[in-house]
């Protein structure tokens, strides 16, 4: 039993002696204490069972102050340093956890902000698309209304002109013995506008009439434009009021650039083009 106890004492003492190697700065502190102990002849620490902190010293003599015991002082310092190390580790762990939480919160906030930005952009695009469609629809309706009014309206064929031979004028130059239309004099190349919406019945060379365009209206009335220098429409094409159908010229039986205009209502002969247009509200 004595030898076993001695072996146990030696093991405890070894553990005590190894502590300074594990705690920075403790070796120098113990060296100073050993020199002081040698000078003052302090009793040597003997091995004893380790406490929960892993260190034990011999019991102090009855009536002595434990704080003056070098072994107890060493144990206290070791425990303080261990507690301080644990506190540092715990503080670092908490700081790391807090830093990760802050980083995660910042990332989540950034993701949320990005989602909100994308959603706002999508709403803005949707609103712009809605406005664009509304504007397109408004323009479409305006254009439909404009065309409707054009179809229902009548205009003069030339913006500027002077009257030459009027309707019904007698003369051997006309095969019928009288003028079946009205001549409107204008410079060659002047655009000719369609008087009213209809379908092109003819767009071709017509002998003494030169290049001629004939428009048939919905009520069967035919309007012919003769002596054109060029034609801008073809047979079968629908043309609306005010659309350019050709240009003033002097082709066929003509003495100079002018537009020979004839109006022939359905089921009857020609009528005075100026009187007919005035009856449709055209200021001419």
Automatic annotation (TrEMBL):
Positions of the UniProt region annotated as Disordered: 26-51, 112-145
Signal peptide: none
Domain spans labelled M23ase beta-sheet core: 178-267
Pfam families: Peptidase_M23
One term of GO molecular function: metalloendopeptidase activity
Protein name stated in the entry: Peptidoglycan DD-metalloendopeptidase family protein
